[in-house]
Design a protein that fits this description.
alpha+beta, elongated, 7 strands, 23% strand
Length: 174
């Protein structure tokens, strides 16, 4: 009887062992599915966040040379550490984020350390920029950006730091 039960159990397990066999075709199908999913996420992200990479850029002459300035319509983020009146024309951006929480966290680290006047601005997307300092003229902003780059109070990823011209949202320039 014991041998009969063992034979029946063996007969039932043999097909199960061979039916789970992994083949190259299975690996290829799984790989293709993963690549398709990754590409669709990249396309959606490009659609949502692609316009931020399309900032208008210009070179402005200052007394000490020329500086590249990017131009985009922004507004001061509510709870971002500044009033709308404090947003000047030329802003030194130290960080950029897709998430408001991350931008506010970085702003807090900057404000506690080397940049007490740091605040957060946002675009319509929304996309958040942490402004280390805001100036009325490009020369002062360029000087501060070089100092910020040299001292680097926080880790800054490309393209930061850069100068953001925020006059796109004003009818007159201050």
């Amino acid at each position: 009887m014991k041998n009969v039960l063992s034979a029946i159990a063996l007969a039932l397990m043999v097909p199960a062992l061979f039916s789970c066999k992994t083949t190259e075709a299975n690996y290829k199908a799984a790989y293709d599915k993963t690549v398709a999913a990754r590409d669709s996420v990249a396309q959606v992200e490009n659609t949502i966040y692609g316009s931020r990479r399309q900032m208008q850029s210009a070179t402005i002459a200052t007394d000490s040379g020329t500086v590249e300035v990017r131009r985009m319509r922004v507004k001061v983020t509510e709870g971002g550490g500044a009033l709308p009146e404090q947003l000047r024309r030329f802003n030194v951006v130290a960080a950029q984020f897709k998430q408001r929480f991350n931008a506010l966290s970085m702003r807090g680290r900057l404000a506690d350390g080397a940049c007490p006047g740091a605040f957060v601005v946002e675009t319509a997307e929304p996309y958040y920029y942490v402004v280390a300092a805001s100036y009325a003229n490009a020369a002062d902003a360029a000087e501060y950006m070089e100092r910020l780059r040299a001292e680097a109070p926080v880790v800054m990823r490309e393209p930061c730091p850069f100068i953001l011209d925020a006059t796109a949202n004003r009818s007159r320039i201050r």
